[in-house]
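Task card 7
Instruction: Convert sequence to structure tokens.
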Amino acid sequence: MIVATLALAGIFISLYLTLYKIGVIGELSCSIGSCETVNTSKWSRFLGLPVAAWGLLFYLDLFAIALIGMFPRFENERVISIVLVAETVVGVLFSAWLTYLELAVLHAICIWCVTSAVIVTVILVVSVFDLKDNYLLGAASN
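Output:
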């Protein structure tokens, strides 16, 4: 439930940034940092898509996996926990790379991007604990 809720928050943030990037929203609300500098830089696209769109796809995927994991049939299924950990490790590494670019290359920070990085990091921590619990449950039942 925690992962699904956090992924939903990530969906809203990345959707907001994607809508800005494709021109649906005229300006970003950014109380801290320089969100427009970050989101209009050459680094705001990856493999032809806005980075925020990749984030949206990422969070939608995590949300779907987390929802599937809440079904009674899958709630103690280790593969759900393994997939969540594996995907969020990739998400944390990608967020770390983007944060490095913001700080070291652009010399600008986007509070929405930082919030997304924090969300994916918390999802990773929660997922690791869930995986650990699933392995402990599996060991106890053997």
